[in-house]
């Protein structure tokens, strides 16, 4: 019979192992959260693109019936007297604005993030526009053209 001490059993994790796991978790979180936020902003941009594309189609239909484009007052009116659009995009991330020329032969529609929405943090694509000729334009928060990046 042995009278010496019993061999030590490992019954858990050491403080060093716990600290290592926490550091790894912190590093992964520091990388993943900003990447996820950027991805979410990019995905939500499709809300603006879809709204402006649908508005363009509605304006084309309105022009075919009335020989002029609808103005902002007709944005929410039901078809055929208006465009049947709300002033927000379908997912409500963007505010839709419509400016029509005085003669009714041109328009510029814009989509800007709603100020109380998380999408307002998207400084890369802070305004989308489309006009009566189908020209698509987008600018960042500083007014720099980002059309190629944003209209994807």
Question: Helices and strands in order, then pairings?
Answer:
Elements: H1 15-66, E1 94-100, E2 107-113, E3 127-131, E4 136-139, H2 147-150
Antiparallel strand pairs: 1-2, 2-3, 3-4
Feature tags:
single chain, 152 residues, alpha+beta, Glycoprotein, Type 4 Pilin, four-stranded antiparallel beta sheet, 37% helix
Walkthrough of the structure:
37% of the residues lie in helices and 15% in strands. It contains 2 helices and 4 strands, in the order H-E-E-E-E-H. The mean pLDDT is 89.
Rg over CA atoms? 27 Å
* Number of helical segments with 4 or more residues: 2
Examine the coordinates and then state which fold CATH places here, giving the name of the CATH topology: Glycoprotein, Type 4 Pilin
The percentage of residues in β strands lies in 15-25%
Low-confidence stretches: none
Described by strand count, sense and barrel closure, the largest sheet is: 4 strands, antiparallel
Number of domains: 1
Shape summary: elongated
What's the architecture in CATH terms? Answer: 2-Layer Sandwich
Beta strands, count: 4
- CATH domain class name: Alpha Beta
Average pLDDT value? 89
Derived from helix and strand composition plus strand pairing, the structural class reads alpha+beta
Separation, N- and C-terminal Cα atoms: 79 Å
């Amino acid at each position: 019979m042995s009278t010496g001490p019993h061999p030590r059993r490992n019954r858990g994790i050491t403080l060093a192992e716990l600290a290592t796991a926490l550091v790894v978790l912190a590093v992964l979180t520091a990388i993943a959260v900003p990447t996820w936020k950027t991805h979410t902003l990019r995905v939500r941009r499709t809300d603006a693109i879809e709204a402006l594309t649908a508005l363009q189609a509605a304006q084309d239909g309105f022009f075919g019936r009335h020989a002029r484009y609808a103005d902002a007052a007709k944005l929410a009116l039901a078809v055929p007297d208006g465009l049947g659009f709300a002033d927000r995009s379908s997912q409500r991330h963007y505010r839709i604005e419509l400016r029509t020329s005085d003669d009714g032969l041109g328009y510029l529609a814009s989509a800007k993030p709603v100020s109380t929405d998380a999408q307002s943090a998207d400084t890369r694509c802070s305004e989308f526009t489309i006009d009566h000729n189908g020209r698509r334009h987008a600018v960042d928060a500083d007014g720099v053209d980002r059309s190629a990046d944003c209209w994807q």
